[in-house]
Design a protein that fits this description.
This protein has 263 residues and is of the alpha+beta class. It has 2 domains: 2-113 and 249-262, Diaminopimelate Epimerase, Chain A, domain 1; 122-244, Diaminopimelate Epimerase, Chain A, domain 1. It has helices at 32-42, 72-84, 128-134, 155-160, 165-168, 210-221, and strands at residues 2-10, 19-26, 46-53, 56-62, 67-68, 94-98, 101-108, 111-117, 122-123, 140-143, 147-151, 175-181, 189-195, 200-203, 225-230, 236-243, 246-251, 253-262. It is globular and about 50 Å long.
């Protein structure tokens, strides 16, 4: 069996920046074991598996270790590939059926806008293990569905942190976001994201984390439309807009690999 397989760098318009994602186009169903093996073979933060079913697409995401419930950069990459290859009409939006419900992608002014559910955090006590993980006490800690959100005192602190991933794997939540107000006028806030229990020590750019970050910084900054930077080694830029219980994430992607996978 031959499968169409792509990689795309998401949340960037430059090669080797943003977050690389695999995109596997399916004509027939694969088993979960097959998808896990392909994701392990790709060895990227996430590989998306997409199959057209009538007017919508089934979409699933796998890390090299396991399936995840929501992935922004691989959804952006998938949308980019579907439109670029002509598999989906560029004038039409895309609707996905996923483990996080119905998600949509639109093309707006040369960029891709993703319509995702907001994930609201609530304040929690700061565990000693978290302080030992990042080497500094956050000014605030919140807990969302899958992740902690730790606000730090400055962008400089966010950039300098070198986490202990062994300790991080013992935390109650499998994801950890560290964030701060931007130190420049170019962006509203910066962040980094870690998920070693999912096989992703540090994710270059994380759309799903901004479903938590968006509502949080909207309350802090008093505005519902922001520009964010994820300060990983590769880096990535995201437009973030809050509308009721939805988060609109905006970005671009660039195709890096167009291949056939022999299964």
């Amino acid at each position: 069996m031959e499968l169409k397989l792509f990689t795309a760098d998401a949340f960037t318009d430059k090669p080797f920046e943003g977050n690389p994602a695999g995109v596997c186009i399916l004509e027939n169903e694969l088993t979960e074991a097959q998808m896990k093996n392909i994701a392990f073979e790709m060895n990227l933060a996430e590989t998306a598996f997409v199959q057209r079913k009538g007017d919508i697409y089934s979409l699933r995401w796998f890390t090299p270790d396991s399936e995840v419930d929501l992935c922004g950069h691989a959804t952006l990459a998938t949308s980019h590939i579907l439109w670029q290859t002509g598999l989906h009409d560029k004038s039409e939006s895309i609707t996905y059926d996923t483990r996080s419900g119905i998600l949509k992608a639109n093309r707006i002014d040369g960029k891709i806008e993703l319509d995702f559910p907001a994930d609201l955090e609530h304040p929690v006590e700061i565990p000693d293990e978290l302080i030992r993980t990042i080497g500094v006490k956050p000014v605030y800690l919140g807990r969302a569905k899958w992740s902690y959100l730790a606000e730090m005192d400055s962008e400089e602190t966010v950039r300098k942190i070198k986490p202990d991933f062994v300790i991080m794997e013992t935390l109650e939540a499998w994801g950890l976001i560290i964030t701060a107000r931007s130190g420049t006028k170019e962006f509203d806030f910066v962040s980094r994201f870690f998920a070693p229990r999912k096989g992703v020590p540090e994710d270059p750019v994380t759309g799903s984390a901004h479903c938590i970050l968006g509502p949080y910084w909207m309350k802090k900054l008093g505005k519902n439309e922001m520009l964010a930077f994820q300060a990983s080694k590769r880096g990535g830029i995201l437009g973030v807009k809050i509308e009721a219980d939805r988060v609109k994430l905006t970005g671009t992607a660039i195709t890096m690999l167009d291949a056939k996978l022999n299964l």
